[in-house]
Automatic annotation (TrEMBL):
Belongs to the FtsK/SpoIIIE/SftA family. ATP binds at G411, N412, N413, E414, I415, D416, S417, S418. This is FtsK domain-containing protein. It is found in: Membrane. It comes from Salinicoccus sediminis. The keyword Nucleotide-binding applies.
């Protein structure tokens, strides 16, 4: 048999001997174990060379006697326990054990020096008593060395004791100051004018602090005088009561005391009486029907609308008439209609009929006071709404400046375009104070002389040719952009909701008159500022109102895309709004707003010069 095979061969005798030595004997086998052990020892004992087997036999004899826990002897190297380790459930309380009389009761132990009981979740701890007890225990422990147990003194324990002593003194000092403060407040509440002739609170406070210093030597705290004539300590660690009181005082200091700005009265705008213009001319209606019959199209007038300047007949045609023939219809109707200028609306919004708009022979001006008092602006809300005039169907056109974005006023009508800008600005100044609305005018025309010295002006009026005309606006744009980014907001309303009243930003309306002059002049700084405002000025509360009177000077297409609201007067080429070639000369405009895909025909309201001066004088007087 080879060597490896012999090594792996199973030896039953050796395995039995090994299992006999190592297996655990149960208590019932103890008596048999001794007998079997003696007999087995006589059989297997050899010369005494195998020391391991001898030791295992000795262990087998004394197996259950040596498993007992040995008693530890007293040693000078053993560290005595500094304090009882509290249990996670019961804390430092022991289980109840019967006393000498057999009656069970809790074992009360003397508290260790510097030890503090656990804080209850319901009742808490009486901090004043605890701090005094801790101080007395620790100081007694320092004076009497016999209280300490004999043995090793740990420096860690001594450091913990010193920290607890300082913490207890601070707590006692804070409670004493709080008690004094409550006493002073109670005395001031009972006798706010010191009518009882008691000792002043400051003297009483000095005596109390002197007594407390004699009892417990603590460090003095700085005091500050309040408005009531009493002194109160400044606590580094403020209680919830102190924080609430301080917050209430701060709110009282920053509270606005009544209105400091009065809005102009609606009566300053003048009378709002208008003549009756709602009836249609019967002879004129018959001529319109005859014009349709002359070209072979049966028609019927079912409606008439007017705002005093432009009238509109609602005409119902035959069902077989196609609206695609409207272009040829204009050419054939022109010679037969009694108007020198007319405009065909196909279809009227909300119906399947067409309309014929024409100027009235005797127009009636639309008073601005009537438009203002009949719209939602009479409620004097802070919504930045403005009015321009009335539509053809005698409805007031009002819109929000923040929705309108940047506005372009296009056309060679100098007077009426300036009148439209006046309506926008005066509408906003009537309902908003200088802290909410500002105006920047970049023009040297005499028309804007009345706006000088107004409190709403962002900066003094300058010419468009001035290189620094928009430098202040560019700085304001960058400042607002950085502040909004740090405040994590995107628009002006969100920013004003997060900051205080004094830190709120105002809406700025920038009037540029004339944009065509700016294009022809060499002023790159102003052009660069306008581009930046067009790109990111709307959410920051900066809105452009640009006037362009020269139709021969082209406007860049990129600029037109960023001008959300467009107002166009009569234009033969219809460069800005399609259909503006059919308008009449004068107070007649088309307005394209971003929330509508169809332009509205609007006639501007007129504000008399004396009413305008009354409003401006009131604003200048209030502004100081």
């Amino acid at each position: 048999m080879d060597r490896s095979r012999r090594r792996r061969q199973f030896n039953r005798e050796a395995e039995d001997e090994k299992s006999y030595r190592e297996r655990f004997r149960f208590p019932l086998e103890l008596d048999d174990e001794k007998k079997d052990g003696e007999s087995h020892q006589s059989e297997t004992v050899d010369d005494g060379n195998d020391s391991d087997s001898f030791i295992r036999k000795e262990q087998r004899r004394t197996l259950f006697e040596e498993t007992k826990k040995p008693e530890k002897k007293d040693s000078s190297f053993r560290i005595t326990k500094a304090r009882d380790i509290p249990s996670a459930v019961h804390g430092t309380k022991k289980h109840e054990e019967p006393d000498e009389d057999g009656v069970g009761g809790p074992i009360r132990q003397k508290p260790l020096p510097g030890a503090s009981p656990l804080i209850s979740a319901i009742h808490g701890t009486k901090k004043e008593e605890l701090s005094r007890k801790e101080i007395s225990y620790i100081e007694a422990d320092k004076k009497d060395d016999g209280i300490r147990e004999q043995g090793y003194t740990s420096p860690i324990i001594e450091g913990l004791k010193r920290e607890r002593l300082l913490r207890a003194k601070k707590e006692q000092k804070r409670l004493e100051e709080r008690r004094q403060r409550e006493a002073r407040e109670k005395a001031r509440y009972d006798d706010p004018y010191n009518l009882k002739g008691k000792q002043p609170a400051t003297i009483r406070h000095g005596q109390e602090t002197a007594e407390s210093e004699e009892a417990v030597p603590v460090q003095e705290t700085p005091e500050k005088k309040t408005t009531g004539g009493t002194a109160s300590p400044y606590n580094v660690i403020m209680t919830p009561y102190d924080k609430k009181k301080r917050l209430n005082n701060r709110k009282i200091e920053t509270k606005r005391q009544g209105p400091k700005y009065t809005m102009p009265s609606i009566h300053m705008l003048g009378s709002d009486r208008t003549d009756d213009y709602g009836e249609a001319d019967g002879a004129l209606a018959g001529q319109v029907v005859g014009a349709f019959e002359a070209i072979g199209i049966p028609a019927e007038i079912f409606d008439y609308k007017t705002n005093g300047i432009i009238g509109r007949f609602g005409i119902k045609l035959d069902r077989t008439f196609r609206l695609s023939n409207i272009a040829r219809l204009r050419e054939h109707l022109g010679p037969n209609l009694p108007f020198y200028s007319f405009r065909v609306i196909a279809p009227i919004i909300g119906t399947s009929n067409i309309g014929i708009e024409f100027p009235l022979k005797d127009p009636i001006h639309i008073p601005f006071s009537k438009v203002f008092s009949s719209s939602s602006l009479k409620l004097r809300k802070n919504d930045f709404k403005f009015v321009v005039g009335k539509t053809v169907d005698d409805k007031i056109f009002s819109y929000e400046l923040q929705k309108a974005g940047h506005t372009l006023v296009y056309g060679n009508n100098e007077i009426d375009s300036s009148n439209a800008i006046d309506n926008i600005l005066i509408s906003l100044m009537m309902n908003h104070n200088p802290n909410e609305f500002r105006i920047l005018i970049a023009s040297d025309k005499p028309y804007y002389e009345d706006y000088k010295n107004l409190p709403h002006l962002f900066q003094p009026q300058k010419s468009v040719m001035d290189p620094d005309v928009l430098s202040g606006l560019f700085k304001e744009l960058n400042d607002r952009h950085n502040q909004f980014r740090r405040a994590h907001v995107r628009n002006l309303n969100s920013f004003n909701q997060r900051v205080s009243y004094e830190a709120r930003k105002s809406v700025i309306a920038v009037v540029i008159d004339d944009l065509s002059e700016l294009f022809e002049s060499n002023n790159p700084d102003a052009v660069r500022t306008i581009v930046q405002v067009l790109k990111k000025g709307k959410p920051l509360g900066i809105h452009l109102i640009m006037k362009h009177t020269r139709t021969d000077v082209k406007i860049r297409f990129e600029w037109l895309q960023m001008m959300q609201t467009r107002i166009s007067f009569r234009d033969e080429k219809s460069n800005i709004i399609e259909g503006s070639e059919t308008l009449t000369d004068g107070n007649d405009m088309l307005i394209q707003i971003p929330t509508s895909n169809k332009a509205l025909r609007v006639n501007g309201a007129v504000l008399p010069h004396d009413s305008k001066q009354r409003v401006f004088s009131h604003l200048k007087h209030i502004g100081g």
